[in-house]
């Protein structure tokens, strides 16, 4: 309700109020403050004073000596920064059933997502055949990483319930 009342007062006689504001004379701008440029242009002796050299100050400036006490910069042991670094060793991946979607080359010590799911599933289905040592040798991984992977990551299992037990659930 209050919004309607204020809107009425805001929109009352808008056109005539706008015409009145537009037809007013432009206000005169405030006077500008005198700047250093205007002062030096009016008084040439100030400009000469600025450009004149003071011999006493120049001699004092010549006596100033700055001494740096920072330790010298050390040379890096790695040699020049522009030398090429050793390229990472890569291995071809063991392509699973998603061969076109999987990465073709992986750094040694790492596995792709498809390989990780494959090795976890193989270990889950046949733990006697796919031991941690065999997986580490097959995928060029460290044994402690493989043990951690097998301990903390478990692939999902799909379970289908018979129709009779669906109603009981």
From TrEMBL:
<protein>
    <recommendedName>
        <fullName>NADH dehydrogenase [ubiquinone] 1 alpha subcomplex assembly factor 4</fullName>
    </recommendedName>
</protein>
<feature type="region of interest" description="Disordered">
    <location>
        <begin position="17"/>
        <end position="41"/>
    </location>
</feature>
<dbReference type="GO" id="GO:0032981">
    <property type="term" value="P:mitochondrial respiratory chain complex I assembly"/>
</dbReference>
<dbReference type="Pfam" id="PF06784">
    <property type="entry name" value="UPF0240"/>
</dbReference>
<dbReference type="GO" id="GO:0005739">
    <property type="term" value="C:mitochondrion"/>
</dbReference>
<comment type="subunit">
    <text>Binds calmodulin. Interacts with NDUFAF3.</text>
</comment>
<comment type="similarity">
    <text>Belongs to the NDUFAF4 family.</text>
</comment>
<dbReference type="InterPro" id="IPR009622">
    <property type="entry name" value="NDUFAF4"/>
</dbReference>
<feature type="compositionally biased region" description="Basic and acidic residues">
    <location>
        <begin position="17"/>
        <end position="27"/>
    </location>
</feature>
């Amino acid at each position: 309700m209050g919004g309607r009342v204020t809107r009425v007062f805001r929109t009352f006689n808008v056109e005539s109020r706008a015409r009145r504001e537009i037809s007013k004379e432009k206000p005169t701008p405030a006077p500008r403050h005198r700047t250093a440029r205007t002062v030096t242009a009016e008084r040439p002796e100030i400009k000469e004073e600025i450009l004149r050299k003071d011999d006493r100050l120049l001699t004092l400036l010549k006596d100033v000596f700055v001494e740096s006490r920072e330790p010298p910069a050390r040379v890096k042991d790695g040699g020049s920064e522009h030398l090429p670094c050793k390229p990472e060793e890569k291995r071809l991946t063991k392509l699973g059933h998603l061969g076109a979607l999987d990465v073709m080359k992986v750094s040694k010590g790492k596995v792709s997502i498809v390989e990780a799911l494959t090795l976890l599933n193989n270990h889950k289905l046949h733990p006697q055949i796919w031991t941690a040592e065999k997986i580490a040798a097959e995928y060029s991984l460290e044994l402690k990483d493989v043990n951690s992977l097998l301990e903390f990551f478990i692939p999902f299992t799909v379970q289908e319930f018979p129709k009779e037990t669906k109603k009981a659930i």
